């Protein structure tokens, strides 16, 4: 039996094209409600004949750490990507975690390509592309890796493909649109037919989930769109495995205003202005729909601060779910200690954490805030279009077990 080993896990060679989809921001209720409302007929049938499981995502429940966990099969303590954004200890500057230099282990894709597999990766936002494609060989006969956002700029040398827009037959979508994700699936169907890769990875954007609750017309229309493309991939003979990087929850008060714990303001009051430094790992180049407000934060404390006193004060704040020192939090959440601050704070289900009230531009929020990042967004779907062996549906599944299930545990 041919297998590929990477990051202390072993994977069987695909018996059919294997497509893993990360549905950004998709708490299980989105699919459950859409199926119940009759707008996902293919998915309804898939759930009956395949595997309908639940898993926990990585905390912080943000895009980058979870996508990288999925494609390495390991938690952030191993792969090193602790958020979308962090304070780089090497430079002392706050930076996006989009650069492949922050990735500490190879991806499943690289390990399979090194053994001769054909790889295709399509992501909605370009921020993930370099990380997901790290270490791959492009050019003629190499891997394909591009984003919807920059599809018009894709070329053979850097992305393994050119002429994407003409191939897909859709214009390059606006980054704040449902079409950014639809482009991913439209491209996947075309490339499955023409290239038939051994492994395909598709990652969407959570633009819709930030705006629409499960069961709403906007959400159901988006999930109906995905259902149609999933059906086409299934009909092409693919093993189709679906999960999410995180869930999504309402994060506003009864009036519709964001319900925020401004942690920098609190620390400034207790310790002196500017002496502590709060980092929000949700921060990315696309903050219009969440205002850089999520349910996970880390903070660096000044020399001489009593960490226990600070933690006690934070725990007393209304809406704090969890506050611990870095070592304790990193042990619980499997995070790299050298890439977080002195303390970690997680807010409750309907709360978010900000820095200072003056530093958040919320003018782009055209609907009451929905966001993620905490423990309350940890449960995600794990769905496969084929039945699994009986020992596969174990407890304690993580979203980054999905390649293991799709490659090692699908019934022949």
Question: How would you describe the overall organization of this protein?
Answer:
The protein is of the alpha/beta class. It folds into two domains: 3-248 and 373-408, 3-Layer(aba) Sandwich (Alkaline Phosphatase, subunit A); 260-371, Domain 2, Phosphonoacetate Hydrolase (Gyrase A, domain 2, 2-Layer Sandwich), CATH 3.30.1360. The protein contains 15 helices and 19 strands. It has helices at residues 28-36, 41-49, 63-72, 76-79, 108-114, 129-132, 156-159, 164-168, 179-194, 207-211, 217-235, 263-271, 307-315, 326-333, 402-408, and strands at residues 3-6, 9-12, 18-22, 51-56, 85-88, 93-96, 119-123, 144-147, 199-203, 239-243, 249-250, 260-262, 277-279, 296-300, 320-325, 343-347, 352-354, 370-371, 379-384. It is globular. The model has no long low-confidence stretch (mean pLDDT 95).
List the helices and strands and how they pair.
Elements: E1 3-6, E2 9-12, E3 18-22, H1 28-36, H2 41-49, E4 51-56, H3 63-72, H4 76-79, E5 85-88, E6 93-96, H5 108-114, E7 119-123, H6 129-132, E8 144-147, H7 156-159, H8 164-168, H9 179-194, E9 199-203, H10 207-211, H11 217-235, E10 239-243, E11 249-250, E12 260-262, H12 263-271, E13 277-279, E14 296-300, H13 307-315, E15 320-325, H14 326-333, E16 343-347, E17 352-354, E18 370-371, E19 379-384, H15 402-408
Parallel strand pairs: 3-9, 3-10, 7-8, 7-9, 12-17
Antiparallel strand pairs: 1-2, 4-19, 5-6, 10-19, 11-18, 13-14, 14-16, 15-16
Helix pairs in contact: 1-11, 9-11
């Amino acid at each position: 039996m041919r297998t590929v080993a990477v990051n202390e896990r072993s994977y069987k060679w695909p018996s059919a094209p294997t497509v893993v989809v990360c549905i950004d921001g998709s708490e299980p209720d989105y699919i459950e409600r859409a199926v119940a409302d009759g707008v996902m007929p293919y998915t309804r049938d898939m759930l009956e004949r395949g595997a309908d499981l639940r898993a926990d995502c990585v905390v912080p429940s943000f895009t980058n750490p979870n996508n990288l966990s999925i494609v390495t099969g390991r938690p952030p303590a191993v792969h090193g990507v602790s958020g979308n954004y962090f304070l780089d200890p090497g430079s002392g500057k706050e930076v996006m975690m989009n650069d492949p230099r922050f990735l500490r282990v190879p991806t499943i894709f690289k390990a399979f390509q090194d053994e001769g597999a054909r790889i295709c990766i399509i992501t909605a936002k370009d921020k993930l592309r370099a990380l997901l494609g790290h270490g791959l060989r492009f050019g003629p006969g190499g891997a394909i890796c591009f984003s919807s956002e920059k599809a018009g700029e894709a070329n053979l040398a850097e992305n393994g493909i050119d002429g994407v827009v003409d191939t897909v037959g859709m214009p390059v979508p606006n980054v704040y649109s449902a079409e950014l994700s639809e482009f991913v699936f439209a491209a996947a169907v075309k490339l499955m037919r023409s290239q038939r890769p051994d492994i395909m990875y598709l990652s969407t954007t959570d633009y819709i989930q930030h705006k629409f609750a499960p069961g709403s017309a906007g959400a159901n229309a988006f999930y109906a769109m995905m259902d149609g493309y999933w059906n086409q991939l299934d009909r092409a003979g693919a093993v189709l495995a679906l999960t999410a990087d995180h869930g999504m929850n309402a994060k506003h008060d009864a009036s519709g205003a964001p319900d925020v714990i401004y942690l920098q303001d609190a620390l400034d009051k207790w310790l002196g202005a500017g002496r502590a430094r709060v980092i929000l790992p949700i921060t990315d180049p696309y903050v219009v729909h969440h205002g850089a407000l999520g349910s996970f934060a880390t903070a660096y404390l000044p020399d001489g601060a009593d960490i226990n006193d600070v933690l006690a004060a934070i725990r007393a704040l209304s809406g704090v779910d969890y506050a611990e020192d870095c070592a304790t939090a990193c042990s619980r959440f499997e995070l790299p200690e050298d890439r977080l601050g002195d303390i970690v704070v997680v807010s409750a289900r309907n709360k978010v954490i900000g820095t200072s009230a003056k530093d958040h531009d919320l003018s782009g929020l055209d609907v009451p805030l929905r966001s993620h990042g905490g423990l309350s967004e940890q449960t995600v779907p794990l769905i496969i279009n084929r039945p699994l062996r009986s020992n596969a549906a174990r407890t304690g599944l993580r979203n980054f077990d999905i390649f293991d299930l799709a490659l090692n545990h699908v019934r022949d």
